[in-house]
Amino acid sequence: MWKRYFIAYKPFHLISLIFLIIFCLYTVLWTAISSKIEADLLNNIKEKIGESGKIEVASIETYGFPGKWGFVLNSVRSSGTVSDFLNNAYVWKWDSNAILVEINPLNSQELTIVSKGKNNLLIFESKGRQLVKVTLENLESQVSQITKTNYSLDFLQIENSRIYLSNGSKLAQINRAKLSITASQGEQKNSVHSEVSSNLLINKLKFFPELNVPFGDTITELKIKSLISGNIVQPITLSSVSNWRNDGGTVELKEFKINYGPVLGTASGTLALDKNLQPLVALSLRIKGASKLIQRLVEIGLVPPGNGSLLQIFIKLKEGKGAGLELPLTIQDGLLNVHQIRVMDVPLIIWR
Predict the structure, then answer these.
(1) What backbone torsions phi and psi does residue 225 show, to the nearest 5 degrees?
(2) Quick one: what percent of the chain has pLDDT higher than 70?
(3) What is the DSSP secondary-structure string of 252-294?
(4) d(C-alpha 58, C-alpha 60), whole Å
(5) pTM given for the model
(6) Helix boundaries (H) for the chain
(7) 172 vs 91, 273, 293, CA distance in Å?
């Protein structure tokens, strides 16, 4: 009887043994890869933030077995330098209580970063004077490397962000913001031109009394979807911008949407630079509440009264009942025109 029982269950024991061996091998492999990633993690971060960057971490904890590789970076302090599009250098410092870094075993090129709780970001001039302080909560992002030359910021989401000026006064507050960016070399289109597509959505952007804004202090929704084409060389200087323009560089504004007070506006079109490297813009606008907007812009001095009167007449003639106003907007030769009506001068860009 016992012999028959053993023979009957022998395949079960064999399968169990095979699974146990596989599990042990997977455990050893997971642990080895996890240790390797942990050892290289800080070096990889330092490489991304540049030679001048620094990062300090109190400790690193590992989690996620048997699935994803996860790491908790405790008491993180990092810093680095960044340049704006006019090549002005700034120093940034970021402090966080804990940052969670997760890697998907099925796609090692996919990286998820989460920072719960309060984060502090400080921006300084190169000479050391503090310009801006940003506090934010519940930062979460996911980054993917699609191919060797194609990258994607799948999303960067922040909540309860507050922006302060150097004197400590509050400038703005963002309830929630989400950004996605994809950069590529246009290989799928057999093109040598690089492309950067982005999608930004902001909910409840609130300004504070330091700014003179037309309709109260809150923009309910702001959405910007764009595609930048052309080879962009860092740092952005007069020479690199000129090469980008001569190479056919453009910005396609696929969607712009703003919900602000009585104004609901949408726009799409193209942006480029003329031979003098000044803005060359052609947009198609649809605005609800255009009359109230022009009236308020005249009141705060952004639009001359004469131009405002012409625009009001035009609005009454063209605005459809309940459908809003559709009109073209152009910027050329330093002038902003709405349906061939000169609205205001556009400041020149001084490239360095």
Answers:
(1) -125, 125
(2) 84
(3) EEEEEEEEETTEEEEEEEEEEE-TTS-EEEEEEEEEESHHHHH
(4) 7
(5) 0.76
(6) 2-49, 238-246, 290-299, 305-318
(7) 21, 31, 22
